[in-house]
Amino acid sequence: MTPQAPPPTRPSPGAFLLETLTKRADFLRAAKARRAVMPGFILQARRREEGEDIRPELIRIGYTCSKKVGNAVARNRAKRRLREIARTGLPLEGHPGWDYVLIGRAEVTATLPFDQLKADLSRALKKVHA
After folding, report:
1. Number of separate domains in the chain
2. Alpha carbon of 94 to those of 46, 83, 108, 121: distances in Å?
3. In whole angstroms, what is the distance from residue 118 CA to residue 128 CA?
4. pTM of the complete model beyond 0.90
């Protein structure tokens, strides 16, 4: 009798891999999926399908800020802040096998207190996974 492999388990928090979305098609698919509007940003989330990359430990994340957010300096600052809240929050509360897109909001993403942005991400993740 051959031994069976143990069933796959969910990796411990912090063991998830974050990968950045780069293809426009991924952003468009996320735009048609679930969304949570928060004061500092908008979160779009969708579960990846069978034919896509479904590595169990992979969480994919994309960031975008339109010209409404401000000039290039303001957009880059907003995206830096979004990247940091995703880096700290998604491995703990994000779900593997999902794509997330964080969209910066005009005059708010770059100015809100960082702790509030982190709390907003936590609330947004609970909302899209409810």
Report:
1. 1
2. 11, 14, 23, 10
3. 16
4. no
Q: What CATH number is attached to the domain comprising 75? A: 3.30.230.10
Do residues 94 and 65 lie in contact, with contact meaning Cβ atoms separated by under 8 Å?
Answer: no
Query: How confident is the model at residue 32, as a pLDDT?
Result: 95
Asked whether residue 95 is domain-assigned, the answer is yes
> Given this model, what pLDDT does residue 4 score?
63
Whether residue 62 lies inside any domain: the answer is yes
Residue ranges making up the domain that contains 83 = 18-129
What pLDDT shows up at residue 56? 66
d(CA 99, CA 21): 8
Angle at 48 between CA 64 and CA 130, to 5 degrees: 85
The answer to whether residue 8 sits within a structural domain is no
Q: Which residue stretches of the chain have pLDDT < 70?
A: 1-15, 53-54, 56
| One-letter-per-residue 3-state SS of 92-103 | HHCCCCEEEEEE
Evaluate whether 58 touches 17 at the Cβ level (below 8 Å): yes
In this predicted structure, what is the pLDDT of residue 16? 74
